[in-house]
Write a structure and sequence with these properties.
The chain is mostly beta strands. It is built from five helices and 39 strands. The strands form seven sheets. It has a 22-stranded antiparallel barrel.
Length: about 675
């Protein structure tokens, strides 16, 4: 099948025979996948982003540390998951749980961000324990990562920041792409991306999709997916309406772990049962965005989305039984339905010498979660045939109002945000009992920056976050007595420098941050019971980050994070220690060089290094994780005789570095070397 796809692409790229009879110089054709509608980017550098402040704002002038993964970075590095997409981002750590493609589980500035820190086109993505939305990198044209509390604009979210995913949007010019990919473990994938105007320039479309069939290094653990994302846009210069939809079905392995024979020790025994190891996930979303210019100074913005994630998880493991080990099999069903809407009015004007971009809005969200769970000890077949009993359910309603003002006067910029959220939750236990909780809170941000003519920007900000927590927490993780979790609140203080010279495709950022979190929720596996508990944390650190592209074909991404996440209040024996799975140093460097002249013109060479420093494997700091370093390689070739045709190969973890990593007292194993090769044609 892969050979047929390759032959098809090569045939479609071939030049007419008549053109080969005489020398012919073809015009240079550059087709870019990004729409630049809400995220303006060039190479690895994003210059203007609505995804960071809800307003089209130069990234260098935002008084907050912002990292943006651009379309070119995604295309060059070929990440398979959201976790891999964040691998070269300062303060993002997707390395805590070894190889596990079931979930995108990452931290920002040391704090977990995958439950309440994922947003799509400015609207929150609701995730549950296993019904976590799977982001397809091929369907995105960029990702904006806001560091530190962002609740004042985006609502309920955590202390470390948020990840705002930008969906591929319709383009004004015709764009067509077809790509075939093969790789390790019999990977076979075909993908296509088509966009352009319909009838006239007011109506445009985009259709993105892929089909993948693949195995992995783990027995019975697949990586299959079918993905389809249509989009439609109407724009008459006064009103713009964009429809964004997605449907996908994926099948991965249900178990990714290896047996832990003792505390802090991981064995070579794979926990999964190859005959009972499917994790099926169906997800869909349907939404729209409306932007209507009421006058020269007033613009109405409205967006809404409904979505669903439905999962069917088969998993298994081992447990001690006498002198040996016995097996158990689990069956878990989970579904999340959510609907969210945001309406805001933007005013551009001036009060005396001060120019304003003012945004006032309200957002509403309703989410329903339901789970069923079964564990069997007889056989996989017995567990699969059993009825899966109801486990728990939750209904959440959230309402928020916010006000955001971006002020500029001379070389000064000031950002002020204020928000109030109210969250009502009804939690239903397995016995049918219902517990109602009401939480409300304020969040805000005040930031200021000064820009010199050289392109140097100095900034400072203070920001807060608010996030209710669901379920019970245990002050004593060995006890069966729990209590409702209190909302998590946090305050950040941050100062920094940015450098973005006029006319240069370069952005440098240096920041120092200090975050105090109160009543955070973490998982504690030290008792063997995977209890949640609350604790107070302090995260302090330094970030350095650089994105650049030069006219000679060289592009670079570099980042370094040095931080310490200290437990201020928590379980006995943990106070004053560092939170598990939080390395003190994370360093990454990626470079790509495209040869543009000479006999090697069209050849591109890329390489990257990801270094994860030492960390502790539990909160009592009795386990230590060694430092790990991974090397990634890339080579591409744009065929000069066939404009739009590119061959590319990527190798991740080129030196096959596989280490153990422990988090919250449980230990995992990294993925080994993996490679992909693709053939793409754009026309």
């Amino acid at each position: 099948m892969r050979l047929d796809l390759t032959a098809l692409l090569l045939a479609s790229a071939a030049l007419p025979a008549a053109a080969q009879d005489r020398p012919h110089v073809l015009p240079e054709i550059t087709l870019e996948a990004e729409s630049d509608e809400t995220l303006t980017q060039s190479g690895y550098v994003a210059t203007i982003s609505r995804q960071a402040t809800r307003l089209d704002t130069p990234v260098a002038e935002i008084p907050q540390a912002i990292s943006i993964v651009t379309q070119d970075q995604i295309e060059d590095q070929r990440p398979r998951t959201l976790n891999e997409t964040l691998g070269y981002t300062a303060s993002a750590n997707p390395n805590n749980y070894g190889y596990d493609t079931r979930f995108d589980a990452f931290t920002l500035r040391g704090f977990p961000a995958f439950y309440n820190g994922v947003f799509r086109d400015g609207l929150r993505v609701y995730n549950a324990p296993t019904a976590i939305w799977k982001t397809e990198p091929y369907g995105t044209e960029g990702i904006a990562i806001l560091k530190g509390p962002a609740s004042s604009l985006y609502g309920v979210s955590g202390p470390g920041g948020i990840v705002n995913i930008v969906t591929k949007r319709p383009k004004d010019q015709p764009f067509r792409e077809i790509e075939a990919t093969t790789g390790a473990n019999d990977r076979a994938q075909i993908a296509a991306d088509w966009s352009g105007p319909l009838r006239d320039d007011r109506l445009s479309y985009r259709l993105t999709g892929l089909v993948r069939k693949s195995g992995t290094d783990l027995p019975g653990y697949d990586d299959d997916k079918t993905y389809l994302a249509p989009a439609l846009r109407f724009d008459d210069g006064t009103t713009r309406v964009t429809l964004l939809a997605e449907w996908s079905r994926s099948v991965t392995g249900g178990t990714a772990a290896f047996y832990n024979p003792a505390y802090g020790v991981v064995s070579d025994l794979y926990e999964g049962d190859p005959e009972y190891n499917d994790f099926r996930q169906d997800q869909w979303r349907l939404g729209y965005e409306v932007e209507h210019r009421l006058s020269g100074s007033l613009t109405l913005r409205h967006s809404a989305r409904v979505s669903q994630v439905d999962v069917d998880l088969e998993y298994s493991g081992h447990y001690p039984a006498g002198a040996g080990l016995a097996r158990y099999w689990g069956h878990y069903l989970e579904k999340v339905d959510s609907a969210t809407a945001d309406t805001a009015l933007q005013w551009n004007g001036a009060t005396g010498p001060v120019d304003h971009e003012l945004l006032a809005g309200i957002d509403l969200t309703r989410a329903e979660y339901r789970a069923h769970s079964l564990i069997g000890y007889v056989s996989a077949a017995d567990t699969a045939a059993g009825d899966v009993p109801f486990s728990d359910a939750q209904e959440t309603t959230q309402a928020g109002i916010y006000l955001h003002d971006q002020m500029s006067f001379g070389n000064w910029n000031a950002f002020a945000s204020l928000r109030f959220d109210k969250v009502d939750t009804d939690s239903t236990a397995a016995d049918g009992s219902v517990e109602a909780t009401e939480d409300s809170g304020r969040s805000g941000r005040l930031g200021v920056s000064y820009r010199w003519d050289s392109g140097l920007v100095a900034y400072a900000n203070v920001s807060t976050s608010f996030a209710p927590n669901l379920g019970l927490v245990y002050d004593d993780v060995t006890s069966d007595i729990g209590r409702p979790a209190r909302p998590t609140r946090a305050t950040q203080r941050e100062v920094g420098l940015k450098y973005a010279p006029e006319g240069g495709n370069l952005l440098l950022t240096a920041s120092v941050f200090d975050i105090d979190q109160r009543d955070g929720v973490v998982l504690d596996a030290s008792s063997g019971r995977n209890r949640q508990r609350q604790l107070d944390l302090n995260s302090r650190g330094v970030e350095l980050e650089a994105m650049a592209n030069w006219d000679n074909g060289l592009g670079m991404i570099a980042s370094w994070t040095h931080q310490r996440l200290k437990i201020e209040e928590g379980a006995a024996g943990t106070v004053g220690h560092e939170l598990s799975g939080t390395p003190n140093d994370i360093l990454s460097l990626w470079g790509k060089y495209d040869i543009r002249q000479g006999s090697l013109a069209g050849l591109g060479l890329g390489a990257g290094i990801r270094h994860v420093g030492e960390s502790y494997g539990d909160d009592r700091n009795t386990l230590t994780n060694d430092a790990r370093t991974f090397v990634d390689l890339q080579v591409s070739y744009d065929v000069p005789q066939a404009p739009g045709v590119q061959m590319q190969m990527n190798v991740k973890n080129a030196f096959d570095r596989q280490e153990d990593i422990c988090t919250a007292g449980y230990c995992y194993r990294d993925e080994g070397r993996v490679w992909t090769a693709s053939l793409r044609r754009r026309f």
